[in-house]
Amino acid sequence: MSNSKLELFKRYPKNPIITVNDIPYSANSVFNAGAIKFNDQIILLMRVEDMRGISHLLIARSKNGVDEWIIDNKPALFPEPDKFPEEIWGIEDPRITYLEELKKFAITYTAYSHGGPLVSLAFTEDFEKFFKVGAILPPEDKDAALFPVKFGNRWALIHRPIISTPYSAAHIWISYSPDLLHWGEHRILIRAREGAWWDANKIGLSPPPLLIPEGWIILYHGVKRTAGGAIYRLGLALLDKDEPTKVLRRSDEWIFGPREFYEREGDVDDVVFPCGWIVEGDEVKLYYGAADTSIALATASLEELRKYILNCPAAEESKRWG
Ligand code: BMA
Domain residues of the chain, as ranges? Predict the structure, then answer.
C-alpha cells in the first residue's frame, strides 16, 4: 500500500477515463498515452493493442482533458514494417515534446523489432500529418523522451537501454545529439536501486521532463518483482536546469502506485504507467495506463509537487540504501 497520508496525485473519481469500449473499432485494450495541449484541446496519443496483440497509436481529443473525448476512427501512427522493419511487432508508449526551435512536436515511441524494443522518432506540426524518422537508438531500449530545449547546442534524450538481466540492472540513461538522429555522450542518469526497494533493478522514465524554476522534474516508474508478479509504481527526481546530467534530488518513497481495481487487475495486473502530463495553471494532469487495459487520470498541484521534490533527499543521500 502506498502512503495514504501523502497523496500528491489524486485520482479522478470517474476513472478510468477511456476504455476499449470507447474505441470505434475492434481492439483488445487502450493504455499508455502521450499527452499534449494543442489548439485549446488536450490530445492523447493512445496505445491501442489490436486483436493480434500488435499496438498502434490513436488520437483522442477533449477540451477539458477529463471527459467528452472525441476519438479518431483510424490510427494516427501504425506499424509500417515494409518501410520501417523495426516496427514488425508494433509501436508503443509514445511521449510527446514540443520543440519550440523547430516548431514541431517530437514523438518518441517504442518500436517492437525482431531484435527487441527500440526507440523511434516521429514529428508532427498539427496532429493530422506525421513524419516518421525511424529508429534512433538500437535495441533493447525504450521509455524515451526529449527535453524541449537544447543544452549547449545539443538535444538531450532520456531513455532506458537494456532490460535487466541477472547480471545488470535497467537504469535510466541520458544521451546527447546535435541533430536528433545521432546520439552519443551516453551515461547513466538515475540508477535503479537494489534489494527490497520499490525501484530495485528496473526503472524507466514515465512522461517527459517538466521544468520548474529549480530544475527538471522527472517522474519515473520503478518495477518491483514479487512472487505475485511485478508492481509498477512512480517516484520523482529533480535534474539540474542547465546540466540535466546532474541529479539534485530523488524521492525515497514512491508517490503513486496501483491501488484501485482498474490499476490492480487487467491484462497486466498492478501497473500504473503514465506517458504524458499537462500543466494548466497550478494543476498537473497525469494520464496513465492502468493495468495495460485502460487510461486513467490523476491530478496534482504543481506547487505541491515542487515542494515535495525540493524536500526529498539530495541524490547522494538517497543512494544510501541503494
Ligand atoms: C513495460 C512496457 C509498458 C507496459 C509495462 C507493464 O515494460 O512494455 O508498455 O505497460 O511494461 O506491462
Answer: 15-321
As for ligand 1, residues whose beta carbon falls within 6 Å of it are: 32, 92-93, 232, 268, 271, 273, 289, 292
Per residue in 76-126, pLDDT (tens digit) is 999 999 999 999 999 999 999 999 999 999 999 999 999 999 999 999 999
Class for domain 15-321, per CATH?
mainly beta
Mutate-to-test residue for ligand 1 from 201, 292, 294, highest number of ligand atoms within 8 A of CB: 292
Which residue has the CA at smallest separation from atom 4 of ligand 1? 292
Q: Look at residue 167 in the predicted model and tell me its pLDDT.
A: 76
Provide the pLDDT confidence category of residue 1 given band limits of 50, 70 and 90. very low
pLDDT tens digits along 101-112: 999 999 999 999
Distance from Cα 54 to the centre of ligand 1, integer Å: 13
Which residue has cell 493493442? 49
Give the ligand 1 atom nearest the CA of 273.
10
